[in-house]
Give the backbone structure.
Amino acid sequence: MERFAALLDALVYTRGRNAKLALIADYLRTTPDPDRGWALAALTDALDFPAVKSSTIRNLLTERVDPLLFALSRDFVGDTAETASLLWPQASDDAMPPPSLSEAVGLLQGMTRASVMSELPRLLDRLDADGRYALFKLATGGLRVGVSARLAKTAFAQGFGVPVEEVEEYWHALVPPYAELFAWGAHGAPPPDTGELPLFRPFMLAHPLEDAVLDLEDYVAEWKWDGIRVQIAHAGGETRLYSRTGDDVTGSFPEMAEALGFPAVLDGELLVRGTHQGGEVGGAASFNALQQRLGRKTVSTRMLADYPAFVRLYDVLILEGEDVRELPWTERRARLEALMPRLPAERFDLSPVVEADHFEHLAEIRAGARDEAIEGLMLKRKDSAYVAGRKTGLWYKWKRDPLLVDCVLMYAQRGSGKRSSFYSDYTFGCWDGDPDEGAELLPVGKAYFGFTDEELKQLDRYVRSHTVNRFGPVRETDRGVVFEVAFDSVHASRRHKSGLAMRFPRISRIRWDKPAHEADRIETLRALVRD
Amino acid sequence: MAAPFAWIRAEPHGIHVVPADCWIDPSLPVPNALVTHGHSDHARGGHGRTVATPETLAIMELRYQTREGAMPVQYGETIRLPGGVDATFVPAGHVLGSAQIVLDHAGERVVVTGDYKRRPDPTCPPFEAVPCDVFVTEATFGLPVFRHPPIEREIGKLRDALRREPDRCVLVGAYALGKAQRLIAELRRAGHHDAIFLHGALERMCRLYEAFGVDLGELRLVADARREELRGATVICPPSALNDRWSRRLPDPITAMASGWMRVRQRARQRNVELPLIISDHADWDELTATIEEVDPAESWITHGREEALLRWCQLHKRRARALALVGYEDEDD
C-alpha cells in the first residue's frame, strides 16, 4: 500500500506525460504480482467496491469530526477523500502494520454495506495520511491523478517493451489482477487467447483538421454524425456493443444485440430513429433523443418503441474470422457495402460518402450542412489501414464552426481538484427582454473551461470583489461581465427556467469591454434551436 | 469601573492599546507601534516610534533603510508604557526576533502572539506559554486538516531527491525571512555540509541571521556558480522565483516548496511543485488548540487565518472566543 500511495502522490505532482509513463512503467516492472495487477486495475478504473461510497467516507468522518469543521476543511481542501485522509485521527502506535495493496483490495472486496462502517475504520487505522488518501481513492474509484486508462496501458507496454495495440487487444479478455497479461508482458508467456470472444478492439481515431487543405485524390469524405461512436462485435454466438472508451453498453440497447447474427466487428455511429431530422425516411433524431436511451440498466418496451436505435456503419474490422484491419480503407469499404444486404435494414445503414469535386467544394458542402445530426465532416485517407488510436495523416475530423452568443455572468462556484479555492464554474444568462426596460437575466448555461489560467485568476478576483449574495459554495455576482459563449447546439429543455439547454458550452472570450446590457437576449438563442 | 479589557481594542488596522495610545502590528503608520516580528504584513514602516526586539528592528532596518524611532527591548524585559501599561516581550518561536507581547494593565493580562509555532527551531528561541486573561492568537493553519509532519521527515524527502537525481538540483521556494534560514539550519543539523546556493534576494537576510549568531554553513550565490557546480545541489529562492525565468539557468531543477500549505495536494499543484515539503513556521491545528488549553485564557481573540474553524473549536470546548476583523494580514507563503 505504501508503494501504491507513493506512486499516486508522484503522479499527482508530475505533469509531463512522459514522466508519468516512466513512473508507472517503473512501478509495474518493480512491484511483485499481484500488487502490480491491482494497481493497474485501479489506474484503469477497473475496480468497483460497491460497499464503499463517498457518502460512506462522509458518514465515517461525521461520526468522528464536528460537521462544521469537516465542511470548512472540505471547502478549503477541495476534495472529500483528501480531507478525510487528513482529518482521520492518527491511531496509536500499536496498530497493525500497513496492508499490502492486495490485502487492502481483498479486505475492501469483503466489505458489505452492513460491515463497512466497522471494517473500514480498522483498515484506515493501519495507514498514514498518504496511505489513507490512496485507500479512499482506490475504494471509491476515480483516482484523478491525470492518468487515463490508455496512458496506463501505454505505460505497461513501455515497461515491458510490448506493443500497446496488443495490450488493448487482450485487455477485454482479462480481469484484474491480470495474471495472464503480466505473465505475457513480464515473463514471455503466450498471449491470452481472444479468438472466440466478442471483444472490444481499439478504435481508430481522427485528428482535428485545423487549417490544412487535403487533396481529394487521396482522401474521401463522410459525414460526422452526432450520436455516439460504437463498435458492435459478434463472436462465439454472442453480440456486444462497446462505446468509444470500451465500455460495454449492450444492456442499454438490447435491440442491437439481436441484430447482428454472424461473426464480425463493425464500427459505426449509434443513433436513434427520428423523422424530424431532415424529415426524410430513415433519418436520425438529434443527440437529445439519443440521450433518453443512454445509461439505462433496464429498457422499457415504450423506450424501445419511442426511441428505436440503429447503427450507421463507418467501417469493418473483422469479418467471418478474418481480420481486415490491415487492408486499405477502399477495400474495407467494398466489403462493408457488400455486407449490407445481410444486415437488417431497420438496425443498420451505411454512412454515405460525401461526393465533392475538390476541397473548396467540400468546404461549401460543410458550410451548408444545417442538419443537427451532422457534427461536421470526416476525411479518411483512401489507403489507410484501420489502426488503433490517432495516427497523424490518416483520418481527420473537420467540425462545424461553433455557435456563439454573448451572455452575462450570474453565479460562480468554486472548482475542485487543481481549481479548488478558485471560483471557476460559471453560470451565465441572457436577457428575457430589453434590459433598459427592466428585463431580467435568465440562466442559460454553465461552463468551466475555455479560459486560460491567467484569465481564471482575473475572474476569481472579479467574483470575490463583486459578490452580491452567497449561497453556500456559490456566489452571485453583480451583472458586470460578459462572456462570449461558444456551443455546439441548443435544445429545448424543461430543466431550465429559460427553457433552453446548450450542448457543450465553453467560454470563448471574456468581453471585459462589453457592457452587460448589450449581451444577447433569450430570443436570439431560442432562434437557434433545431429540435 | 470600566468593562473588562476595555483598554484594549481590535480596530481594522491593528490592536489598539488605548491608555498608552500604542498599536500592535498596525497596518497603517502610527505614532507608537509595538511590533511582534519582522514579516512585512506585521512590521510596516513609517511609524513614529517602533518598539521591538533588536533582531526585529534589524530586519526592519534592512527592509526600510532606517532606524529612526527604533526602541529595542530584550526578551523577558518589561517596559512601562504611558497610561500604566506594562509590555513584556516573550519568545514566539516563529522567526528570528519574533515575540509575543504580554500586556499588563489594571490587574488584567493580555497576550498578543503575533505569529507563533511550537516546534523546535535552531534559528530562534522556543515559544513560552504565558497564562493570561485574553489570548490574542493567530490562526493561519486553523483547520483540522493541518497537522505538520516532523521536520526530519521533510528534510529526509529533500535529501532523498538529491541522492536519486544527482544530475539535477533541488530548487526550494522558501519565504525569505525565517523559512529559508530554518531550512538551511535543519539541513545542517541533518548532516548536510555541502555548499547551499542562494537566489540573490535571500543573501542579506541570511547574513543578518549569521550576524545574530545563527550558523548556516557554507552559502554561495547562484549568480557566482557555474551550471555544473549546481548539479546535485540544493538551491533556495523566494517562492515568487520558483517558476520565474531566473530558474532557467539551473540544471533541470526539481521544483520544491517549503510551506505548511504543501499539506494540501492541490495547493502544491497550483504552484507547479513536484516536491512538496510540509515545513511551516506556524502552529498547526493541534498546536493552536493545545496552546489555548495550556494558556487557558478567559477569552481567546482570533486574529487572522482560518478563524472560523478555531472559533468553532472554542465553542465546542466551551471557551469564550471571538474573531477580530483585522485587515492587511496576508496568507504569506509560509
Observations:
- Residues 183 and 189 of chain A are 5 Å apart (CA to CA).
- Chain A has a mean pLDDT of 89.
